[in-house]
Amino acid sequence: MTERDQQRARTTVPTSYESLSLAARDIHLAFGRHQVLRGVDLDVARGETACVIGPSGSGKSTLLRTLNRLLEPDRGDVLLDGESVLRQDPDVLRQRIGMVFQGFHLFPHLTVLRNITLALRQLRRLPADQAAELGLRQLDIVGLRHKADVRPAQLSGGQQQRVAIARALAMSPRVMLFDEATSALDPELVKGVLALMADLAAQGMTMVVVTHEMGFARRVADQVVFMDHGRVVEAGPPAEVFEAPRSERLARFLAQVR
Ligand code: ADP
Ligand code: MG
C-alpha cells in the first residue's frame, strides 16, 4: 500500500455510531458430541470494544457466530441492549449486528458499489439512487470512493476487506463483529484495516473483535477476553490481561504469541 493509500485508509468522514450493548449469558454449544462452548459469558457495553484472544480451536469463531444467530446455542442467551436476540428475526438481527470474516465474501461479478448496495436494495428496499448515495458515503468512510466502479479482484486484499467493512456499515449496524479480519492479508496490508477498525472503535461502535493482533488488542480494546477450551478463562482491561495474567494458561498463551 502506498503512503497515500494508507492515508486514504483512515476514516475520511467523521461519524458517530448509535451502538447498543451486547451480552452473552452462559452460552453452551456442541457439534454432535463435541462440546465447543461450555458456558460463555460476555459483557460488552455500548461503544466498547472487546478483543477475544485464545488458541486455535478454543471456540472464538463459534462464539461470534452465536452472537448474531448464525449458530443457535444449545443453552444460554444473547442480549442486544438487554433484549434476547433468540426471539428476533435472524434477518433483521444480522442487519443490526454486522459481521466481517477472514475471507472477504465479496461478490466477484459485482462492482464494489453494487456489492455494498445489494443488501440495501434487497433487504432495505431502498431505491437505486438512495442506495448508491448511501453506498458512496460508506466508501468515503473506508477511503475507497475512487474504487466504486471496479470489481473486487482489482483491489488488494486490504482494500477488499475495507469494502466488506463498508458493506456491513451500510446497514447501520448497532454492533460489529470481526472474525480474524486481517488474518488473510499480506503483512503490509494489515495496518490499513486495523486503522479503520480502530477508527470505528474510537467513534463509538460496539465491537467484538477476534484477533491475533496483540498490539491492536492492547491499544484499542476496552476489554480483552481470553478463551480456552470453550470457556472464558480471563477477561479484563488490556493492561491487566497482558501484564498480569492470573492463570497459567493465559501466561503460556501470551508467551507463545509474543
Ligand atoms: P477458534 O475460532 O477459536 O479457532 P472455532 O470456534 O472455529 O475455534 O472451533 C472450535 C471447535 O469447534 C474446534 O474444535 C472446531 O473443530 C469445532 N468446530 C467448529 N465448527 C464446527 C462445525 N461446523 N462442525 C463441527 N465442529 C466444528
Ligand atoms: Mg476462528
Automatic annotation (TrEMBL):
Protein name per the record: Amino acid ABC transporter ATP-binding protein (PAAT family)
InterPro entries the UniProt entry points to: AAA+_ATPase (IPR003593), ABC_ATPase_HisP-typ (IPR030679), ABC_transporter-like_ATP-bd (IPR003439), ABC_transporter-like_CS (IPR017871), MetN_ABC_transporter-like (IPR050086), P-loop_NTPase (IPR027417)
ABC transporter domain: residues covered: 22-254
SUPFAM superfamilies tied to this protein: P-loop containing nucleoside triphosphate hydrolases
PROSITE patterns assigned to the protein according to its UniProt record, in alphabetical order: ABC_TRANSPORTER_1, ABC_TRANSPORTER_2
Keywords: ATP-binding, Nucleotide-binding, Transport
Family of the protein in this entry: Belongs to the ABC transporter superfamily.
Gene3D superfamilies: P-loop containing nucleotide triphosphate hydrolases
